[in-house]
Design brief:
- This protein is mainly α.
- The protein folds into 2 domains: about 190 residues, no CATH class; about 350 residues, no CATH class.
- Strand 5 and strand 6 form a beta hairpin.
- Helix 2 packs across helix 5, helix 9 packs antiparallel against helix 10 and helix 12 packs antiparallel against helix 13.
- The longest helix has 27 residues.
């Protein structure tokens, strides 16, 4: 660690000539990674004190709103603290609001305008819609001077802008670049190694940990959405998932930023524990992206891939089992209290990861010969997770309205729909799969105002429905009042199968026993997963991959800038190469203007640039 003039302390590793081994320049976090009740109480007291000062500083005109009307500025800040803030805890309210009144180090006009920009999209005020781009332009103006030195507030601003810009659709490249700036600055400050700077206060360490893990989560989500390699690898970091300021954990949360909600009684925010579990889940996501969707995954032996599947599935199961009781939520049980939206999003992400992990094992043909049961068992997991996502969507819409739900909810809807469309194709009208598919299409319709990608998802799913000859009527309602059904593949026995341990290497001989255990004493008239033709389900993935490969061989052009994963299911960028297997790369496709082309329902990189030619005018 070395101090560079004109900047904060910068990090230099052991291979650098600037590496300093003097112990006085480096300290472990006080008390190691442990925390004390005394320190927690200090944070609680300071946070409560600063919350009181917010009102006082506002009334006395001490807060710097960067020329924005103070009432409007406070309105936008309130939206942020009520909504985006709880997703990743990137911003630290006590320090930001304190330094906003005294020009301290944890406030900057760049970060303030990034918050304005992100919040303005969710403001119900008409006058805010007209000045939305003014905040974007102000960020551009302020960013130039902030790039010469690494600052925590610049990192926070870049991460806030990354989340806001990506949802707009036409700013994905800027979102990716801004995220990259944040990651570089984090490493420059040594924030990936805890306790690197001896002069850090407990508040400094708390903020650095929150910002680092917020960036880690954003990195994984951006990698997933855009189909690009992760930047912050879990193996390169040494930062505990430990946050000492618990003030917001039990603070009363009411849906101020959700204008459609009128009857929600409020709930403890559970912000800190939710963020803690999201960070842990993101570590598992890091492993899934590397091992299943990484560039070199195609070269790995099927036996090794099967071992990875077993291990990562166990990690997901253990994560869910270890959830604190207050975060455990079952949307199939009606009448109970509903947690805040960020808790529902956490559960949606868990189920998305189950599908991301297992769906490639349904479609990869070379695994079938090794263990024929793996594709069928993996599809069972996908079907269960897809049904749980739909239940979460109905709960979310009934309680908060899906109209302004975050982008993750739209992506989870899409991932779920790719499974339901195949089940619906076999079970036909009247099945729960049809009802679930209708719910997904309704989410796309409602969520398009704030999330551009909902239109892309809707187009892809409708094209899949045409391919499988599925017709739906009346998709405008989410049917939140409909009784929650277990649906195909979600009998009680089947649900326990998911949560009670999954033997992914079950032999063909054992399938009859497994089938009997699933169906058991359940309602004989209820659709179950084992009413499906599993071979046809599996072929629906494999044939789709082969058909699109053949159709695109003549026109696809490989781009060398990025590579899609070798283990990507249904990649329309796959090109058969001599000697077997597929060479993966980004392709340029010509999409017909009428949107009639059936587009692969890819999961990794679904919102990458390769599908930009798709017509979304449906």
């Amino acid at each position: 660690m070395a101090t560079v003039p004109g900047s904060q302390s910068s990090y230099y590793g052991r291979t650098s000539a600037l590496f300093d081994e003097e112990p006085s320049d480096r300290t472990a976090p006080r008390g190691g990674v442990q925390t004390s009740e005394f320190t927690r109480r200090q944070f609680m007291g300071e946070a409560a004190h600063q919350r009181q000062l917010e009102t006082l500083n506002y009334m006395t005109g001490k807060l710097d709103f960067d020329g924005v009307d103070p009432e409007l500025g406070m309105h936008l800040l309130s939206l942020h603290w009520n909504r985006q803030h709880h997703s990743h805890l990137i911003t630290y309210r006590p320090a930001f609001m304190r330094d906003m009144a005294c020009q301290g180090p944890y406030f900057s006009k760049l970060l303030l305008n990034a918050i304005y920009f992100g919040s303005s999209k969710f403001s119900p005020r008409e006058e805010v819609k007209g000045i939305h781009q003014q905040f974007r332009q102000r960020v551009r103006e302020l960013l130039g001077g902030a790039l010469d030195r690494s600052e925590i507030t610049t990192i926070q601003a870049m991460l806030v802008m990354t989340n806001s810009l990506f949802a707009l659709g036409d700013e994905r490249s800027a979102a990716w670049v801004y995220a990259g700036i944040a990651f570089r600055m984090l490493i420059d400050l040594g924030a990936h190694i805890d306790g690197q700077y001896s002069k850090s206060t407990e508040e400094d360490l708390e903020i650095r940990r929150r910002v680092f893990w917020g960036a880690f989560v954003v990195d994984k989500i951006q990698s997933l959405y855009q189909g690009r390699p992760v930047s912050l690898q879990e193996a390169d970091i040494k930062v505990p998932i430990l946050f000492q300021d618990q003030y917001e954990e039990l603070e009363r949360w009411t849906p101020f930023a959700y204008p459609e909600t009128q009857s929600y009684p409020g709930s403890p925010a559970y912000s800190v524990s939710t963020f803690t579990e999201l960070c842990t889940l993101s570590v598992i996501m890091n492993a899934i992206l590397n091992n299943v969707y990484g560039v070199k995954s195609a070269k790995r032996a099927p036996e090794k891939l099967a071992e990875d599947l077993e291990r990562m599935h166990a990690d997901l199961e253990n994560w869910q089992t270890a959830l604190p009781e207050h975060l455990a939520f079952d949307p199939s049980i009606s009448g109970g209290p509903v947690p805040p939206p960020h808790v529902l999003s956490l559960h949606a992400m868990f189920n998305v990861l189950l599908i991301l992990l297992h769906r490639p094992f349904v479609s990869e043909g070379h695994l079938h010969s090794m263990s024929p049961s793996i594709p069928a068992n993996s599809f069972v997991v996908c079907a269960l997770a897809a049904t749980r996502i739909v239940q979460l969507l109905r709960t979310y819409d009934k309680t908060f309205s899906i109209r302004h739900a975050p982008y993750l909810i739209a992506y989870a809807t899409y991932v779920s729909a790719t499974i339901h469309v195949r089940i619906a194709a076999q079970l036909g009208p009247g099945s729960e799969a049809y009802t679930s598919l209708r719910t997904c299409l309704s989410v796309f319709s409602k969520n398009q105002e704030t999330n551009w990608a909902a239109r892309r998802a809707q187009t892809v799913i409708i094209n899949l429905m045409k391919k499988f000859q599925i017709e739906l009527q009346d998709v405008e309602t989410l049917t939140p009042s409909a009784p929650v059904c277990t649906g195909p593949g979600l009998t009680n026995q089947e649900y326990r199968f998911l949560h009670g341990g999954l033997n992914l290497a079950t032999s063909t001989r054992e399938e009859a026993t497994l089938r009997s255990a699933f169906i058991g004493p359940s309602n004989p008239h209820q659709d179950t997963i084992f009413d499906l033709d599993m071979d046809a389900i599996i072929q629906s993935f494999i044939n789709g991959q082969q058909a699109n490969t053949a159709a695109n061989d003549a026109s696809a052009q490989e781009l060398q800038r990025f590579h899609s994963p070798g283990f990507l299911p249904n990649s329309n960028m796959s090109q058969h190469v001599e000697g077997g297997g597929f060479k993966q790369g980004w392709g340029i496709l010509d999409f017909p203007a009428d949107g009639s082309l059936t587009v692969d329902d890819m999961l990794f990189g679904f919102n990458g640039a390769e599908l930009d030619g798709l017509n979304y005018g449906m």
